[in-house]
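Entry, Tuesday afternoon. Goal for today is a structural model of the target with adenosine-5'-triphosphate bound, before we commit to ordering more compound. Inputs were pasted exactly as handed over by J.K., no edits. I checked the ligand SMILES twice against the vendor sheet because last time a stereocentre got dropped in transcription.
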Amino acid sequence: MSESRISLDLRSVCSCVASTLFEYYTPRIVHIKSKKVGFINRFLQLVILSYIIGYVIVYKKGYQEFDTCQSAITTKLKGVVFSNLSHLSDIGVRTWDVADYVIPPQEIGATFVMTNVIPTLNQTQSTCPEDPTIDGSFCIDDSSCPQGKILDKGNGPFTGKCVNSANEKSHVCEIYGWCLVEDDSRYKNMTDPVLFGSHNFTMFIKNNIEFPKFGVRRRNLPDVATNESTAFINNCTYNATDPQAKYCPFFRLDTIVQGAGYPYSAVAVEGGVIEVVINWDCNLDFSVDDCLPEYSFKRLDRGDYSISRGFNFRYADYYAVKENDTFKQYRNLYKATGIIFVINVQGKAGKFSIIPLLLNFGSGLALLALTTVICDLIVLYVLKAKKYYREHKYLLVESQESFQEFRYVSHRRNHRQSLTV
Ligand SMILES: Nc1ncnc2c1ncn2[C@@H]1O[C@H](COP(=O)(O)OP(=O)(O)OP(=O)(O)O)[C@@H](O)[C@H]1O
């Protein structure tokens, strides 16, 4: 490559860099007198203003500051149920009250209510046949029951003997543990759960909430005992369709379960988990008395599984009996099925404040700049006359020095021409 060529390239690169570095863009106001473009511009402004005022400020309450609630919940159940299990268990006839079917008596944010039970009474530490429904419990002779072996789902270690099962239909290994072991085969054909009457039980949900930012405290029952409020509390039961009773804090269990979309009997047989949602949505620009709870119900475990549906667990109560001058310990074992009611409180309160109003309005107004961007795109790239508008939108201006140089050159040229003439 020749030297002159290299110096030419270098010069053109330098002039290109200089022209890119040393130039300046300034916005220019172009007044377009077009009905079409004018309409698009106003329409976009209207849409953005309606969004700011209608949605952000009015609908989303952009003029309020908000606080979420802090909450405390306690529950109390009332109701009794009578059962007759004489043909199935030693438990015979029995009246079950709240201390029997609410296990444990108090939980944080939840309550378990027993709806069905398989009792195994008077168990004590001794030897007895293993449950024949457990894998590995069958035996032919003593050699099939190695002493000390414990089955995965068994009730105790083998004693080393092969004995008759409790129903005397087979041979099973003998164990040492809480005897006699649970036998639920007798309950298989039961149609109704033992505590089916629990659908009539009532649950009192006491809920206190606070919005600390606004210093507002509320609860889901009247604050002051007047004749009217006392009569209301003594007689009401929650009913979502009644304008008064929908604020009553006493809920029948079947109202809750049906409110979650399930028949009580189905959930009572298998057990389940039902959520009670208490929602406080309060507008503190109005009277604080209008800040009231709304209740809704939902089943948290699905009822359509084909394996291990519902929910159950075992618990026992213990007692001692004096036998031959010593006390022997016994227990009653219960396999309890029931419904866990989980209570969740959610709440938001809003109150007018100038700061969020100005913030929302300001950030909304900034959105108006979008109008210019969209209109420019339409005018310069979409409309038929886009070329015409582009010519008026962009203007290339040379620097003043080159402008004066240009004037000087043309002046000399004119002068020379006049002399020639
Ligand atoms: N689950 C419930 N169903 C219906 N009423 C209830 C229930 N729980 C409580 N109540 C009634 O609501 C009122 C307030 O209950 P609270 O527990 O504050 O008082 P209490 O005198 O300790 O209640 P009680 O001794 O009757 O259980 C009482 O009249 C009480 O009987």
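The pocket of adenosine-5'-triphosphate is lined by residues 76-78, 202-204, 250 (CB under 6 Å).
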